[in-house]
Give the backbone structure.
Amino acid sequence: MGRRGMHGLLLLVRDLGMIVTVFLPQMARAELAREGNASSVRLFVLLGFSDLPNLQGFLFGVFSTIYLVILTGNGLIIVITRLDPALHRPMYFFLANFSALEICYVSVTLPRILFNLWTQKRTISRLGCATQLCFFLVLGTTECFLLAVMSYDRYVAICNPLHYPLVMNPKKCAQLAAGCWLAGVPVQIGQTCQIFSLHFCDSDQIKHFFCDIPPIFQLACGDTSANELSVYVVAMVAIAVPFILVLASYTKIISTILRLPTARGRAKAFSTCSSHLLVVLLFYGSAVVTYFRPKSSHTLGTDKLLSLFYTIVTPVFNPLIYTLRNRDVIAALRKLIATM
């Protein structure tokens, strides 16, 4: 190669070096900026009921009243089942657990709603949002399994009454209750970590009054189909499996009740499980409609209404259902009021 050719080659290499030196860092910075935007969401905004600016004070009063009713009603059930010896039975042991669960379940969402309505500060940290969702999922799983255990208790009491004291002994009841409380912890912690490992870049505004899975997925960048499939698999295990157990228990219960010789016996047997059956229908009905309906039918107003129903309205009804339809609980409540 001649001297001119060598010189031209050196100039070309120099020019290429300048291009690499100038443009590659810019490209790298642009790529890093894109990744930063995708994962830099540290705060979310819970829009909640911000579309009703003139009703903020009214909503605060309504939700405060509802919260007090839930705390008082479920708290009374816990107290009377502890104090009244007539209620020291497996059925009421699980009822006390259920009431404690309802208090915890509602306390995951309602205090935050009240804070947002009172202060008009709707921001929540990424960690705070993840924590709220995790507790919501864990306690929701606990409720599914606890309803299944309560239906099993009624199945043993009605279908195998002679074996009931042996099968549902205090140790077994404590183990079943502990299993219900702990069953969803590892799975739902993993689920929450998976959801919040997603990149969020479209917006930081959650169109809901608490951190729920569907509105969080709406903020995610890229394809979330694998994450959605994982959510559905976990939901099938946490919701469908307990529901099948409930269905099997009540199939046996109804079959046994119908075979009883007298109408009075049938009415008495059914009265011991009718309250629980009504609670099961309320909880599973609202959960199935909320999470298992087609994605195309999801609208902001409908999602909020359904979520309000199963997170807040159902826990209001549960103490009323169990007290008004249960003579033992009413008698224990009267005794407690008389001693005050």
